[in-house]
Design goal:
By secondary structure, the protein is mostly helical. It is 66% helix and 3% strand. The protein has helices at residues 25-28, 38-51, 64-71, 75-88, 107-112, 117-138, 144-159, 163-182, 184-200, 206-225, 228-240, 248-278; strands at 91-94, 100-103. The protein has a two-stranded antiparallel ribbon with strand order 1-2. A hairpin with a 5-residue loop joins β1 and β2. It is elongated, with a radius of gyration of 22 Å. The chain starts with 24 loop residues before the first helix and ends with a helix.
Length: 279
């Protein structure tokens, strides 16, 4: 039986169908490095489920057959992947009537041993490239209801004070952005990236997520105006928001002020020329 929450769980909902070059990315599953095998897909999707709190350490996972149908891969591949994750300490296998495969209670401790800064940086750069491309391609086609859903996530992040909740909401924002701009297939591709990043890099501190949320708000504002260049800058600023570089919001607001000043000067000049011609 297919998971009612979507092919890849509750974070994968149907979205608008998109055509064109960007939609084709999902078909070839192009990822940095060697790409993702079926076993790696199982790992990354379980990691993303933990980030989204769909499952938590100690929770029982669906049976291998259910996961195989959700992920579109063979059941034997899923079983082998789950067994490998048990050997790595990410999952626990329990026998008996109440048995099954469970997320290990020490999940976060074990994941910390798997961090890879170099590969994570490559994936982050690839994710940024994907979002910049989606923004540039779809800035004039963003549905208003999609933006409203994303704004609701931004507002919720502003009010959240728990790091786990902040991380969940941020992941949902990027999945939602991928779907609004690229459709359900691109959302699944973004889930591939985000799941791998959950395994490869430390979870950012709450302060970093809040700083990046200001970039989310700027991005949505520019998408609402149909302003491609500032929207792309907001995507790029997201990655720099917690690196100690100059605050992106100052530059963003400065850009807006400069545009406003230039517009005012242009309008004043046009009014003056018109008055001179009238005289």
């Amino acid at each position: 039986m297919v998971n009612p929450g979507g092919k890849f769980g509750p974070y994968s909902q149907p979205g608008p169908t998109r055509t064109g070059p960007v939609a084709a990315v999902r078909d070839v599953r192009v990822l940095p490095g060697s790409g993702q095998t079926g076993a790696e897909l199982v790992r990354s999707r379980i990691a993303l489920r933990v980030r989204l709190t769909s499952v938590s350490p100690g929770d029982r996972l669906p049976d291998a057959g259910v996961l195989a149908e959700e992920l579109g891969i063979s059941e034997i591949t899923v079983r082998r992947a789950l067994e490998a994750m048990c050997q790595d300490g990410l999952l626990d296998r329990r026998r008996g009537r109440a048995g099954g495969t469970f997320v290990a209670s020490e999940w976060h401790t074990v994941v910390a041993l798997m961090h890879d800064a170099e590969e994570a940086a490559s994936l982050e750069a690839f994710h940024q490239l994907l979002e910049c491309g989606l923004v540039a391609r779809g800035v004039d086609e963003v549905p208003a209801d999609g933006l409203e859903q994303l704004r609701a996530l931004v507002d919720e992040m502003d009010l959240a004070d728990d790091q786990e909740r902040l991380l969940e909401l941020e992941a949902r924002f990027h999945l939602g952005l991928a779907e609004v701009l690229g459709g359900a297939g691109i959302r699944e591709f973004a889930a591939d990236l985000l799941g791998r990043l959950c395994l490869l890099m430390p979870a950012p501190a709450a302060e970093a997520v809040r700083a990046r949320n200001r970039c989310h708000a700027d991005l949505l504002a520019e998408l609402g105006r149909g302003a491609m260049d500032p929207a792309v800058r907001a995507v790029k600023a997201h990655r720099l928001a917690h690196t100690g570089r100059p605050d992106h919001t100052d530059h963003t607001h400065s850009d807006r002020s400069d545009r406003s000043d230039r517009s005012d000067r242009k309008g004043h000049s046009e009014r003056t020329d018109h008055a001179d011609r009238a005289l």
